[in-house]
UniProtKB/TrEMBL annotation:
Organism per entry: Seriola dumerili
InterPro entries noted in UniProt: GlcNAc_PI_deacetylase-related, LmbE-like_dom_sf
Keyword Transmembrane helix in annotation: yes
GO annotation, biological process: GPI anchor biosynthetic process
Protein name: N-acetylglucosaminylphosphatidylinositol deacetylase
Length: 267
């Protein structure tokens, strides 16, 4: 009996991952049509989507949402970013804001579509309790100002459990009644094991039920990594481990809050 050695097993797995990525890229048009069925407008096209990524701190956009941003930009969607703090926990707010703009440029979001909120009641602090009504009003105002029809943010566990992340989710869920025409999606928080097995997690993300699944290949990963490296103030040793092993550098899965597209997968 011929037994595959370790290197052959790894190679076989990588080939299957590559086939999974390229095979389902062709389903993109159908997926977009399913999205547009729940949104007002004409026939589905990437240009019909005005997406808003809502984050709490500079670096959230690439640490957690890079695959989504990269894929939406590839589809010619209009992607906006609303960051609800400057990340001034260590008095580096101005520097971190510039790092955010640099990161967004790498990901394909121009500075004109990036908004960073600097409000004394929204500090970068895991012990601070952000006002749900304040955050909600900021998000809703931004959605209306830019005619946003798709909003993506954290789920109730906030990926890392950070209080500022979960506050964003609470604020968005509290805004449902005034956002009837928006597709609202929350980034799924996974367990510790799944979170740190890098691209090995891709087949599992594909098989498990989700409303939206965004996967990037090797080129997209290099782009996401380059965006992460723009955040020089945050590049402590464990960040490099995160860049290498976090599944959020390769794949994002979303659930509805509670409206939104069903069974949508972007490849």
């Amino acid at each position: 009996i011929y037994i595959l050695n370790t290197s052959e097993l790894i190679l076989s797995y990588l080939v299957s991952i590559k086939c999974l990525y390229y095979r389902h890229r062709r389903t993109l048009v159908k997926s977009l049509k399913r999205v547009m069925n729940v949104l007002p407008g004409r026939e589905a096209d990437g240009a019909d989507i005005t997406a808003l990524i809502v984050t709490a701190h500079p670096d959230d956009e690439c640490m957690f949402f890079a695959p989504t941003i990269i894929r939406l930009v590839e589809l010619n969607a209009s992607v906006h970013l609303l960051c609800l703090s400057e990340g001034n926990y260590y008095n580096q707010g101005a520097q971190r804001k510039q790092e955010l703009l640099n990161s967004c440029a790498v990901l394909g979001i121009p500075a004109s579509r990036v908004t960073v909120v600097d409000h004394k009641k929204l500090p970068d602090d895991p012990k601070a309790e952000w006002s749900v009504s304040l955050v909600s009003s900021v998000i809703v105002r931004h959605i209306r100002a830019h005619s946003v029809n798709m909003v993506l943010t954290f789920d109730g566990r906030g990926v890392s459990g950070h209080a500022n992340h979960t506050a964003v989710h609470k604020a968005l869920t509290g805004s449902l009644s005034v956002l009837p025409d928006c597709c609202l999606l929350s980034l799924v928080t996974v367990g510790l094991l799944r979170k740190y097995i890098a691209f090995l997690e891709l087949p599992l993300s594909w098989l498990l039920s989700s409303c939206l699944c965004c996967i990037i290949g090797s080129q997209g990963y290099r782009q996401a990594k380059a965006a992460m490296l723009c955040h020089r103030t945050q590049l402590l040793w464990f960040r490099y481990l995160y860049i290498t092993f976090s599944r959020y550098m390769f794949v994002n899965t979303f659930q509805m809050i509670p409206q939104g597209p069903k069974n949508l997968k972007i490849y």
